[in-house]
From TrEMBL:
It comes from Ramlibacter albus. Pfam families: Hist_deacetyl. Belongs to the histone deacetylase family. This is Histone deacetylase family protein. InterPro entries: HDACs, His_deacetylse_dom, His_deacetylse_dom_sf, Ureohydrolase_dom_sf.
Length: 346
């Protein structure tokens, strides 16, 4: 298994996220990726690779240009409004919700933040763009290496995560959709049918929405039921795709408290769908926030279960790119991700 890591990830370091009327410490912290890289090295996966600069043609085929321009320039604009802003994160405070226009990009900075953000838990900081675009580069390069046959599989250790980010929106700690970029890069490298299997605790709403009307990329997500779990407004079983993409999205929501047995049966349903689709390559959105010790999630997978998750994913026997998404039990994160990698590599 090839491993990649994002050398710029530390540049994204949020201070606070809004939760129930308070600003609380961010869950999505730099140490998450550090501990994963450390554990992979300890287990003999070798020094992870880095990637050449992101191919912006791929990035612009997944994200809208005005949205990317906003992400790239947001910090400079924020600080230019008032130099004291340099000590603060960017968080939205107003949104174009029901009955308000989304088709005009306002000139006001706060209004732009609200246009592109869908929650108040995803701070933009001085280095957010640098971290995101370096992560995108890793995802694209991993896909290209796997498509070229350099190895059967690759693991991309990056942050911030990406699966909640859509064509022109961010949220859920995600800004640029690394998983979607890997899938698109596999398509561009000649794989006619690519499957995305999202095993993060949270529904991959961004990835679903990016590919919702496409028949060439199957999206499957096993996640906490959005009736009670973030991101709440997408991820129901009734969402099956639309237009040409009808039948090419599968959601497998599970109740709070789900243990490995029923979770595993849902994953097997997802794997069956990948096989029936006839994918020639697979992208796994790997969140380990399904872990019993996760502070913001409620499934009950153990560290040992993650070895079996890796085995199950490998049973597809497809060229596979695994992209790191969530997981907030920081101290156990390295072990959990490395367990998946070891289970996969056999
Ligand atoms: C990639 C990913 O896993 N994103 C998850 C985003 C979840 N954001 C909402 C979490 C609400 C956290 N609640 C804080 C509880 C403090 N006790
Ligand atoms: Zn998650």
């Amino acid at each position: 298994m090839l491993t990649f890591h994002n050398p710029a990830h530390r540049a994204h370091a949020g201070r606070h996220e809004m939760y129930r009327g308070r600003l609380v410490d961010c869950h999505e912290v730099p140490q998450r990726a550090e501990l994963v890289v450390d554990e992979l090295k300890r287990r003999g996966f070798g020094q992870p690779r880095t990637a050449p600069a992101a191919d912006m043609r791929v990035v612009e085929s997944i994200h809208a240009r005005p949205y990317l321009d906003f992400l790239r320039t947001a910090w400079a604009e924020w600080v230019s409004l008032d130099p004291s802003h340099a000590a603060l994160d960017i968080l939205p405070s107003v949104w174009p919700n029901h009955g308000l226009r989304r088709d005009v990009v306002p000139a006001n900075f706060s209004a732009k933040v609200g246009l592109y953000a869908f929650d108040a838990g995803s701070p933009i900081t001085a280095g957010t763009w640098d971290a995101c675009i370096a992560g995108a580069a890793c995802a694209i390069e991993a896909a290209r290496q796997v498509a070229a046959g350099a190895d059967r599989s690759a693991l991309v250790v990056t942050r911030p995560p990406g699966h909640h980010a859509g064509r022109d929106f961010y949220g859920g700690y995600c800004f640029v959709n690394n998983t979607a970029l890997a899938a698109q890069a596999l398509r561009d490298a000649g794989h006619a049918r690519v499957a995305v299997l999202d095993v993060d605790y949270h529904h991959g709403n961004g990835t679903q929405s990016i590919f919702y009307e496409r028949a060439d990329v199957l999206t499957v997500s096993v996640h906490g039921d959005p009736m009670t779990e973030y991101p709440f407004y997408l991820g129901h079983a009734s969402e099956r795709g639309a237009g040409a993409g009808e039948g090419f999205n599968l959601n497998l929501p599970l109740p709070r408290g789900t243990a490995f047995g029923p979770w595993r049966r849902a994953l097997e349903q997802g794997l069956d769908a990948v096989a029936r689709f006839g994918a020639s390559a697979l992208v796994v959105a790997l969140g380990v926030d399904t872990y019993e010790g996760d502070p913001i999630s409620s499934f009950r997978l153990t560290s040992a279960d993650f070895v079996e998750v890796g085995l199950l994913l490998a049973s597809c026997r497809l060229p596979t790119v695994i992209v790191l998404e969530g997981g907030y039990a920081v101290a156990d994160m390295g072990v959990n991700v490395a367990n998946v990698a070891e289970g996969f590599a056999g």
